[in-house]
Design goal:
heterodimer; A: 797 residues; alpha+beta; seven-stranded antiparallel β-sheet; five-stranded antiparallel β-sheet; globular; B: 168 residues; four-stranded antiparallel β-sheet; three-stranded antiparallel β-sheet; 8 strands
Amino acid sequence: MTNEIAKVKVVSVPESALKLFLGSMTDNGEKSEYKSLLSSGQTLKEHRDGVLLRTKETGKYNGIATLDLKENDPIRYEKLFSKLRGGLVHSRETAKKIAASPIVEQEGELCFTLYNAAGDCVLTSTGIIIHVGTMGAAIKYMIENNWEDNPGINPGDMFTNNDCSIGNVHPCDIATIVPIFWKEELVGWVGGVTHVIDTGSVSPGSMSTGQATRFGDGYQVTCRKTGINDVPLRDWLHESQRSTRTPKYWILDERTRIAGCHMIRALVEEVIEAESLEAYQKFAYECIEDGRRGLLNRIKAMTIPGVYRKVAFTDVPYAHPDVVTSSPFAKLDTIMHAPAEITIRPEGTWKLDFEGASRWGWHSYNANQVAFTSGIWVMLTQTLVPTERINDGAYYATEFRLPKGTWMNPDDRRTGHAYAWHFLVAGWSALWRGMSQAYFSRGYLEEVNAGNGNTSNWLQGGGINQDGDVHAVNSFEPAATGTGACAIKDGLNHAAAIWNPEGDMGDIEIWEMAEPLLYMGRNVKTNSGGYGKYRGGCGFETLRMVWKASDWTMFFMGNGYMNSDWGFMGGYPSATGYRFEAHGTDLKERIAQGLALPLGADRVPADCDYESKISETATVKRDQQAMTTESLFENYDLYLNYVRGGPGFGDALDREAISVEKDLNTRAVLPEFAEKVYGAVISLDAKGLWHVDAEKTNTRRAEMRKERIARSKPTREWMKGEREKILKKDASVQVRHMFATSFGLSDKFRDDFKTFWDLPAEWELPESELGVPTHGMKSRMDLSQLPDVTTVVLVEE
Amino acid sequence: MATYTREQVGNMVEGKLPSEAVHRMLSMPKDPERFEIYLDVLQEKVPWKDKIILPLGPHLYIAQSLSDKKWVTKCSCGHVFGDYRENWKLNALLYVRDTEEAMSEVYPKLMAPDTKWQVYREYCCPTCGIMQDIEAPTPWYPVIHDFEPDIDAYYKEWVHLPLPERAD
């Protein structure tokens, strides 16, 4: 089906203006005084085109049929690999000490990657390796759009990119890209990225909400030349620092990236000096073909051929009054839909298809195709390819299909991306379950993971901090989300994040220096992990009190009305999020008088324990609206930062009684749900320790299995009732809106839906009948429609 | 390449493998003979004689019926959900948590999904009541056919095992 989209007409650009635009082109379009950057005499685009053509024709990267270097001189190959890879990791570890931002220095939100001249990744450091693809996309954009001619690519240049429309995840990921030359020949590129605290978007913090478009996402630069002769340009330094609320952190992050890039450039020069240019160049392409073969081998070694179908969702609750949007057409509830079909073929190749995904929206959760696909590699390095040999070979071994117009491949240049992770983290949870089905069936139970937890809440905000500076905060505590359960063990409590497997929650003392927010507690979040034979890891929660701030605002960013993960093979999803904030408290007086304070965990949310230790006149918001925009906070106001847990595996009634007992005594589960979900027969002793009676529990569980049968009905019988609801269009507007946007992009998804429910041919669900704003339904304008722009398309659309 | 004994694989299935052994399993290249040992261990666990062809979950299998050689999806208790190519969920029992009250049975207030957005669909075995799967979709979402394995290619080309007889 071809989606009928009324494209916005592009105004034609006068020839004289284009000539000015294109700089050194002569009247007849030929290049003037062209000097190739490559020894082949080709332009960078011709070189890249050649690589792509040879790859397409042979199915092997750059047409490399045999791994000559690796097979004929394996020691040299491994030496090159180890030296370069070790140098990348070392540069990252050294450079991050330059940063002052706890996001970089504490959480490790940075990464350095080495590319060949075609912009394909050869090797990468540890860290936020989603940027293997995003920085590669930026280099490819420069190649495709003739940066070689204008602004020129010279030794000592630096380019900066954070443009989400050409691959970046969100504007706060700033990439510095440095070309690497050897005797006037361009031999590759090195890119370094850090996640900065603030990008000057509509609200403070690195990831913002409420804006409807890119134009509220903050400062964005498109592969701009920001340095020559290894020195940052003064106009760039002045402009960029005043475009963010946190210039001190910004400039130190920039120095971090530059230092790392220059260390790696020096390393490459050293390697070429020692091993010869020819050997380095051979390695820089052969390594990628090696990576391609490596992924195919892993697929065949660990999975099972077949078709896997999974799906994931998350909420966009924008109708609530505490979400103030910049545009009225953004003011609606909707749901992100990410159906994933994984096809693994007998020959070991595979395809990841997201046909049926919902449309992009007027929020900041959209994702560029490269952000989506490159992020999948972050996930796969934690499971299918847990190796340091990750590079663009894995990309060349995979077919991605992301239909144009979906949230993971928008067809409009206005889309906002500041909090793309809200959708990405949820969307990938389906892939975990698909891969884990394969591992389970094959007997590699140690690899099974029920899914990734939702890496939220994000505590964000800003104003004037305790030092009297204009400031913004983004607590990176969700870098320690609960992990999914395995098929042979529980998930880890407050342990990791899908986007940075090396992340941690950071030290309280460091966060208190970076944020005018005192810790009133930091505890495991009871009952946040999904139940199962093996439970998901619990998240944690921190209660913060505003302290010595002025003109301060904060907001919440996370899932509340929905889970973004599912349980697996009979396990339950993790708990959803909620928010707690309190304003106008009497904590100043209570502290002075030595009275009881709200401290520690919000163990049973409905008990409202915090509220019992603040004045009755305080304004409290305790609800499931876990996505908000800025609200005002005064000193002594409270904010609960609840970081989510992971999903569970297997039937909860199969969990060993001793494990439930441990859960109770470590506050991983509330007694009420140990009884209701696990069927545990429990008692509390005089010392305050819980005990589970295994025998009585077995008896109770046998009863519960019978109760399950009694309360259930045959699936096909239930389907009759659900079909009636669909015929009557009985569902909330957000559910209908999600289906309507998916139907609008995919005839196949709509037809499959109608076939499954046996709906009459005339049944339709047009978006126009929902009574909500429909901006974007018909009229869209893609970036490729701008003059003189060649977009880089890296997936089947 | 590491290899594992039948006892070790058995301990793995029971979740009793020491953490060092789990770590080794995770960090070493995969042992291709695992699948055969795994099938052997599982076959001994189930109370029926039909041949396990592919495990689908802790209590769910594709198995070859001894009597007629048909391939079926089967619960560990012996309940048959139907032909292995069908979506077994359509032949299961289903309980849908689509009210606040039903959700409150499994999560504390404020920590469960709002059923106007998301429901839980709990599929259990009609005979033994084991929980086979829990879907967490929006209302209206079709029942998902999760997995259609290419067993012929897997047995013949990947693990090089004789393909059990199949009466279609």
